[in-house]
Amino acid sequence: MSDKRELRAHFSRLREREKSAEKDDAVTECFLRSPYFAYKSFFVYCSIRSEAATDKLIAALLAAGKRVCVPRIEGGRMLAVPFAPLETGAFGIPAPRGGEDTFCEVTVTPLLAFDGEGTRLGYGGGFYDAYFARTPQTLRIGLAYEAQRAEKLPRAAWDAGLHAVVTEAGVRCFPNT
After folding, report:
1. Which of 73, 81, 85, 160 has its CA 20 to 30 A from that of 134?
2. In the CATH hierarchy, which top-level class contains the domain 4-173?
3. The pLDDT value given to residue 3
């Protein structure tokens, strides 16, 4: 299965089967116990469908006094804007109405699959890879379920590797990224 379209379909179905409140809570707890929680600013996706849930993570970060930004698509570009009341944004993803693009030390990204080298299979829109190209100094952390781990994923030159993935089983770091 080397075609990205086939891989996306396969891992999307697999993630839907794996989704559970218990696993989402475990992913959140693993993140909050990780070394990444020590940072001060976070760009966190607003979860939809079968993505690893981020609502409790965002609430915990805000409660801890961290700066939290979430994505908003504007002019075909993904911005990291300060968390504010959400409304339906581009692609049906919740987003704040306004806010300026703000750098965050840690970016928490959704994914369909990841491999042992930190390759991330996203949805194919290129929004996160473009964001990572603009902010190479941000730590790229994926949230996923263990079952989303692939043996080996195709990686294009523009695909930014992850520094780590947090799953219900813990944190997996990729030092060669």
Report:
1. 85
2. alpha beta
3. 87
